[in-house]
Specification:
By secondary structure, this protein is an alpha+beta fold. The protein has one domain. The protein has three helices and twelve strands, in the order H-E-E-E-E-E-H-H-E-E-E-E-E-E-E. The strands form two sheets. Strands 6-7-8-9-10-11-12 form a seven-stranded antiparallel sheet, with no helix packed on it. A five-stranded antiparallel sheet has the order 4-3-2-1-5. A hairpin with a 3-residue loop joins strand 8 and strand 9.
Length: about 260
C-alpha cells in the first residue's frame, strides 16, 4: 500500500544519518566510569589569559544516543578571573529531587565521557563581561530546573537554547544534532536560539525554523533537516552540520 511505502521511506530518511554514524564511528563508547574526562585544550589558560571569554561546546552523548545527539554546555571566564564557570543541565541530577541545572567551576572543555567537545560559539574581549552577567541571569531563570527528558526535551540542549535566546550576541547556531533545542514547552512560536529569526515548534517534535544564522530547518519527530546559506552548509539528522565554512570561523568575537 502507498502509505506504507511512504512511511517506510520517511523512516529510512530519518534514521539513515544516525545509522551511518553508528556504523562508521565509535559512538557506543566504553564504561562511563572509565571514559575520558580530560581537557580538550581548546579553551585558553585562565592564568595566562586576562580577557573575558564565553565558549559554547557540543560533544556527542554517551553510548548509542551519540548516534543521534549531542550534549551542549556553556563556559565563561570574566576579565581577570583565574577559573572558568560552567553552566549545563545534567539529567541524572534529577534523581533524589535535585535541580538538573549545574553551575560550577572547573575544566571548561572537558571530554564528555570519552567524546571530544567542539567549540560552536565564542565571545572574547571588551564588552563580554556584560554578556557573562546576562548568561548567569538567564541560566538561573531556566524554567525546567526540575524536569528532564532526553527526547524530545527539556534537556541540556533546551537549556543552552534558552540562554542563547536571552543573550543574542552569541548568535548561537546549535547543531542539528542538539535534540531538544526546539523544545518550547507550552509555547508554539519563539525567537530562534541565535536571535536572528523565528521558529514554530510543537513540543520539540515537529516544527520549522527560519533565521539569518541558522538558515532554514525542518524538525520531523525531533530530527532536524536544514540548509544554512550564510555558511554554505546542510544539516542532517545524526550526521550533523556539513559545510564549507567552519561554524566558529574566528577567535575574536564582536562582543563589544
Amino acid at each position: 500500500m502507498r502509505w506504507i511505502k511512504r512511511t517506510t521511506l520517511i523512516l529510512i530518511g530519518l534514521l539513515a544519518g544516525p545509522l551511518l554514524v553508528m556504523v562508521g564511528g565509535d559512538v557506543l563508547g566504553s564504561d562511563w566510569r572509565t571514559a575520558s574526562r580530560e581537557p580538550a585544550n581548546i579553551a585558553p589558560d585562565p592564568f595566562t589569559t586576562r580577557e573575558a571569554i564565553v565558549h559554547v561546546y557540543a560533544a556527542r552523548t554517551f553510548s548509542w544516543r551519540g548516534a543521534f545527539g549531542v550534549h551542549t554546555w556553556i563556559s565563561v571566564k570574566p576579565t581577570g578571573a583565574p577559573t572558568y564557570t560552567i553552566y549545563e543541565v545534567i539529567g541524572w541530577r534529577q534523581y533524589g529531587g535535585h535541580s538538573v541545572l549545574a553551575i560550577h567551576n572547573g575544566v571548561p572543555d572537558r571530554y564528555w565521557f570519552g567524546k571530544r567537545p567542539h567549540l560552536i560559539a565564542e565571545l572574547r574581549g571588551d564588552g563580554v563581561d556584560n554578556a557573562i552577567l546576562r548568561i548567569d541571569k538567564a541560566a538561573r531563570r531556566y524554567p525546567y530546573q526540575h524536569a528532564y527528558t532526553v527526547y524530545p526535551g527539556p534537556n541540556s540542549n533546551t537549556f543552552t537554547a534558552w540562554v542563547g535566546r536571552h543573550v543574542p550576541e552569541l548568535r548561537l547556531d546549535l547543531p542539528p544534532t542538539a535534540i531538544g533545542k526546539d523544545y518550547l514547552g507550552d509555547s508554539l512560536i519563539s525567537e530562534t536560539p541565535s536571535g536572528t529569526g523565528y521558529q514554530f515548534s510543537i513540543k520539540g517534535l515537529f516544527g520549522i525554523l527560519a533565521a539569518i544564522e541558522e538558515g532554514i530547518e525542518i524538525n520531523i519527530a525531533g530530527l532536524t533537516f536544514g540548509i544554512d546559506p550564510l555558511n554554505l552548509a546542510i544539516k542532517l539528522p545524526g550526521v550533523g552540520r556539513l559545510g564549507l565554512i567552519p561554524q566558529v570561523a574566528r577567535s575574536e568575537s564582536d562582543g563589544q
